[in-house]
Amino acid sequence: MTLHFPTIADCIGNTPLVRLQRLGGHPSNTLLVKLEGNNPAGSVKDRPALSMISRAELRGDIRPGDTLIEATSGNTGIALAMAAAIKGYRMILIMPSNSTAERKAAMSAYGAELILVDGMETARDLALAMQAEGKGKVLDQFANGDNPEAHYLTTGPEIWRQSHGEITHFISSMGTTGTIMGVSRFLKEQNPAVQIIGLQPQEGAAIPGIRRWPEAYLPSIFEASRVDRVIDMGQAEAEQVMRRLAREEGIFCGVSSGGAVAAMLRLAQEVRDAVMVAIICDRGDRYLSSGIYDAP
């Protein structure tokens, strides 16, 4: 008799969908959050990281032992570092120097090599320049269809199944936009009436993981038609709700997740009899050194 045991890669996905108990709007609404921090490397990015590497292998674009390069602000880099370790690739990550110490340490722990630069636009430009010089293969989460495809095949179906097909609103922060693109495509196929709400930072807000991209750097995987409404989120509001999630719900997460729930709480004041799902994209422990949990 041969016993089958899962590998760490098999543990990506199928994360819990849980109901908020103390934060909320009108009592007729059901507010749900999907705990993507429960993935092995701690974020929603585990899904596209494994997808981008595995599918590139299947196409013959890369093979174990090759060098992979990616520009990242944090979560994708950690996930790619894990996926590269699983599959036997050298991983070079280019990231803004102001990323938290925990993120840098996690990437290094998985064996990735880090290059620190001034900002994400610089990181993306350098990754492509290194590829042009033959130093490795850029996966390019911003233009790689395997990114949203991972969410179309896994995150979207999970949310539909876990909400028993009752979901009315889906709320997600937008960085590379892979999550919202893939989930939107799946949910709209099941029920075109589901409202897809995207989150971007207000001008001047610094919320890790979400961006207002200059036109020249807008991810090419992004299709504006797949998002019904975009909400601008302030940094203070996102951080306040992030702390409330930990203290009132026992959900320990990062700022972009706080922003997604803050947007959901706004929407919950506008509607009745809704079933809303927001993405909790990572865990709060990778932000502790920034001091954001020290505030009252």
TrEMBL record:
InterPro entries attached to this UniProt entry = Cys_synth, Cys_Synth/Cystath_Beta-Synth, CysM, P-phosphate_BS, TrpB-like_PALP, TrpB-like_PALP_sf
PROSITE patterns found in the cross-reference section: CYS_SYNTHASE (PS00901)
Task: Please write the reaction equations for the catalytic activity of this protein.
Answer: O-acetyl-L-serine + hydrogen sulfide = L-cysteine + acetate
In which family does this protein belong, per the annotation? Belongs to the cysteine synthase/cystathionine beta-synthase family.
Enumerate the NCBIfam families for this protein.
cysKM, cysM, PRK11761.1
- Coiled coil: which residue ranges? none
Q: Which residues carry this modification: N6-(pyridoxal phosphate)lysine?
A: K45
Membrane-crossing segments per the record: none
**Keywords of this protein's UniProt record, alphabetized?**
Amino-acid biosynthesis, Cysteine biosynthesis, Pyridoxal phosphate, Transferase
> What cofactor does this chain's UniProt record say it requires?
pyridoxal 5'-phosphate
Q: Name one GO biological process term.
A: cysteine biosynthetic process from serine
Q: Binding of pyridoxal 5'-phosphate: at which residues?
A: N75, G175, T176, T177, G178, T179, S256
Enzyme nomenclature, EC number: 2.5.1.47
A GO molecular-function descriptor? cysteine synthase activity
To which pathway does this protein belong?
Answer: Amino-acid biosynthesis; L-cysteine biosynthesis; L-cysteine from L-serine: step 2/2
PANTHER family for the chain: CYSTATHIONINE BETA-SYNTHASE
Query: Where does the record place the Tryptophan synthase beta chain-like PALP domain?
Result: 9-282
Query: What protein name does the entry list?
Result: Cysteine synthase
